[in-house]
Amino acid sequence: MISFWIILTGALVAVSAGLLGCFLVLRRMSMVGDAISHAVLPGIVIAFLISGNREPLTILIGASTLGLVTTFIIEYLHKKAKVQGDAAIGVTYTFLFAVGVILLSLFAGQVDIDQDCVLYGEIAYVPIDTLITASGMNLGPRPVYLLGGLLIVIVSFIIFFYKQLSLTAFDPGFATAIGISTVLWHYLLMGLVSITTVVSFQSVGAILIINFLIGPPSIAYLITRSLKRMLIYTVIIGILIAFFGYQIAAYFDVSVAGCMAVTTGIIFAACFVYTSYNSKMKKKDIVMTQIPQSAETV
Amino acid sequence: MMNENSVLKVNSLTVGYTRKPVLWGIDFEIPRGKIVGIVGPNGAGKSTLLKSIMGVIPITNGSVKIFDQSLDEVRKRVSYVPQRESVDWDFPASVFDVVMMGRYGRLGLLNRPRKADKEVVLDCLEKVGMADFARRQISQLSGGQQQRVFIARALAQQADFYLLDEPFAGVDAATEETIIQLLRKMSEENKTLIVVHHDLQSVKKYFDWIIMLNVNLVAHGPTETTFTEENIKKTYGGKLTLLSDVRNILANTPYPTKENK
C-alpha cells in the first residue's frame, strides 16, 4: 500500500507538471519553470510568517504571488531593460531563492520548513501524512487529494483553452491580432506552474518538479509532431517514470526522487537515439520520394 | 473627413521602441479594393507599421481607424499575415491545424471548431494549392509552402481587409505567382490588401497603390504617379547603391496594367 501511494503521488505530480511543461517547452521557456520552482520559496516563508500556520491555502496564495512576481520581473528585465532572456532568468531566481533561504535561516525557529526538504523533498514520507476522518477511517495521504484536485484543474484548463494556449505558443503576433491576449495566457500559465510547484514541492522537492516540467514533454516532443499527441504521450511517460523510478529506488534502496529523475534521463536518451536513427533511415526514403514531389501542383 | 470608400486611416502615427522613433508622424488613407504595396529600406518601419495597425505593438502617438472604427470593433473583418520567419516551424502541428487557427477569431472563448469551419479550412487550402498537404507536418514544408499555409490561414479568417508582411520573401516563382493571382482575385471581390514588399522591380506590376516609407512617410498614392525615380531616391537615400539599376528598370519596363496580365 505504501508503494502504491508513493507511485500515485509521483505520477500525479509528473502528469500535472508535464502537461503544463508541454507549453513551456514549446514557448522555449523551460527555464522559466525552473526559476519559478525556486523563486516561490520566499513566498512560502512570508505566507508562513504572516499567517503563522501551514494551511495549504495561505501558502498557495503566497507562493503563487511570488511565482507571478518572478514571471513579471523576468519579462520586465528581458523586454524593457533589454537584459538577455536567460540572464534575466538567472539573476531573478537566484536572488529570490536566496532571499527565501535567508528568511528561512532568520526565522528558523518559527518556520517549520527546511532547505533540504525544499530542494529534494521526500516522496517516501508521503504516506505518513494521512487524512483520517472523524470516525477514524484512513483515506490515504493528504498530498494525493491536493494533487488530484490540481490535476483536474490543469486538465480542464488545457481542454477548455486549448485554442488559446496553442495559438499563443505558436504565433503570438497572430494571436494578438485576432484579439487573444498573449499576456493574459502567459500569466495564467505561469500562475498554474507556480501553484503546481508549491503543491508538489513538499512531496517531491523543487528539483524533481523541474525534471517533471521539462523531461516528459521533451521526450514526447522527440517522438511526435502533433500537439495533442504530445500531451497524451507526456501523461503516459510521466506515469511510467513514476512507476519505474520507484521500482528502481526500492530495488537498490536509494532516493526515490533521484531514481525518478534518472529514469527520465534514461528514457530521454533512449528516445533520442531511436529517433536520430529513424530520421537517418527516413532521410534515405525522402531522397527517393522527393523527386516527383518537386513538380508539385501550383 | 473620412472618405466613404476609405478602409484604413492612419493619423500622425508615431511608434518608438525605446526612445528612438521607428515611425514618425505617419499620415495616410487607403481606398477600398486596392492592392497596396509598402516599400522602404531595411529598418524603415514597414513591419512595425503593420504591427502597430494590428495592435501587436503599442502606438506611442496618433491613431488608426479601420472602416472608420477602432480595431477592436472590426477585428473580425481584418486579417494579418506575419512574417514567415516569425514563428517556429518545428512546432508540433499539421498544415490543417495552422489554417484552422484562422478560424479561432470567429470561434468564441470556449467553442470548438465545427464542421463548417473544417470545410472553410479545406476550401482555403484548395485555393492556395495545398489541399494535398492538409495532413503534412509543418516542419516538412518548403519556404514557399509555409507561405501558402500562412495565406490560407488568412483566407480562413474571411476578412475584408488583409495585411501581409513580406509574403514574397524567399518563396519560389510558382508560389509568388499563385499568391499574386490570389491577391488580384481578392481585390476584384472588393477586398483591400496591404503588402510589405522588397522587390522594387515588381512594384509596378503588382500594386495599384503604393506607400513609400523611411521612418517618415515619403510618398503615398497611385503607383503610376507616386512610384517615381525621385520618390525612390528620397525613400532609399544613399542606402540604395543599386539606384542606377532601378533607373534602368524603370526606363526599360513598360507599365503593365492589371487587365492585360
UniProtKB/TrEMBL annotation, chain A:
Could you mention a single GO BP entry for this protein? transmembrane transport
Q: Does the keyword Membrane apply?
A: yes
Q: Does the keyword Isomerase apply?
A: no
Q: Name where it's found.
A: Cell membrane
Instruction: Assign the protein's first listed, main location to one coarse class.
Output: membrane
InterPro entries reported in the protein's UniProt record: ABC_BtuC-like (IPR037294), ABC_TroCD (IPR001626)
Q: Which family does it belong to?
A: Belongs to the ABC-3 integral membrane protein family.
What protein name applies here?
Manganese/zinc/iron transport system permease protein
Q: Which source organism?
A: Albibacterium bauzanense
Automatic annotation (TrEMBL), chain B:
The residues the entry assigns to the signal sequence are: none
Q: Entry's InterPro entries?
A: AAA+_ATPase, ABC_transporter-like_ATP-bd, ABC_transporter-like_CS, Metal_Ion_Import_ABC, P-loop_NTPase
Q: Where is the ABC transporter domain?
A: 8-240
Spell out the molecular function terms from Gene Ontology: ATP binding; ATP hydrolysis activity
Entry keyword set = ATP-binding, Nucleotide-binding, Transport
Q: Known Gene3D superfamilies for this protein? A: P-loop containing nucleotide triphosphate hydrolases
Does Transport show up as a keyword for this record? yes
What SUPFAM superfamilies does the record point to?
Answer: P-loop containing nucleoside triphosphate hydrolases (SSF52540)
Source species, domain of life: Bacteria
Protein family (similarity comment): Belongs to the ABC transporter superfamily.
What is the name of the protein in this document?
Answer: Manganese/zinc/iron transport system ATP-binding protein
Organism encoding this protein: Albibacterium bauzanense
